[in-house]
Fold this sequence. Notes:
The protein is of the alpha/beta class. Helix content is 23%, strand content 40%. The strands form 4 sheets. Strands 6, 8, 10, 12, 13, 15, 17, 19, 21, 23, 26 and 27 form a 12-stranded mixed sheet that branches. A hairpin with a 2-residue loop joins strand 4 (26-30) and strand 5. Helix 1 crosses helix 3.
Amino acid sequence: DIDFVPGKNTKISDDGLRCFAEIDGEVKLEKKIIQVSPIFIIDGDVCLDTGNITFNGTVQVYGDVRSGFSIKAKRDIIIYGMVESAELTAGGNIVIQNGFVAQNKGHIRCRGDLDVKYIDQGKVTCHGDLRVESSIMHSDITCFSQMKLPFARIIGGSTTVVKNIEIKELGTKLGVPTEITLGDKPIINQRLVDLRSQLDEKNQLYEKMKSVKNLRPDQVKANLEKLPDKLAKTLSLVLEKNEEVIEEIQTLENMIQKLEMLFRMKTNSKLLVNSKVFPNVTITIGHSKTVVSDPTSACSYFEDSFDQRIRIGPI
Length: 315
């Protein structure tokens, strides 16, 4: 027997053995919960005729997504044509049957996996797996999972992947600068920069708070009146929320401490190259970096954390 729970837009039969959809849409089974998500279908292109699309479900486009337009979907986005310099944001997966040609203007963001034929001068932020059929050219790619491109190549641009990369070729014979980064260190480092900035702001407010918290109410009011309106208002809020500020500082300090520990840990990510790596490809894995000077074939790159260097091995 299989237990299931009815979710949105579904109902259970009286005997509890069958589940029915109450609307037309896409059926999903997530952690034993059956739900039906509505699908918004566009028969042609996303353009002036349709305008920008925002939908609380799955969006299917049977044409192209033209430059300057956007699609925001709570679930999946499926494009049967190509995507120009547009904005795609999905809470689930994105599938693009043809390519993403962005001219350094478009941006694709997805919480799930991304499948696309090719990416040209585009920006991509993918939290799931990224699969590309033919090529990534001069693009800015961030993937929080892994990239599987066994028959594709990466030329130019910057590609950051938290887990592993499988690729056919990197760079070109002409030595086009190409940057490949594996591991979570750049992401952790950026997060540390942001948190330290927030901590500095909280500490500055706390120091100002300490300088006046022992004064009498009339003295506090007099001091606040001497300050600019914006700063006086901020300081008043801090004085009212003394305990909250202290807790926020402690929370930030704990988060920074944990991230610093993660930053020092070994990176196990690997770069697998099925065909060739050409010169002028910069490979960063964890805390180590190397610039390829001579072509290499059918090999893997990984970090030797003991010697703090990148080594080459078999696939």
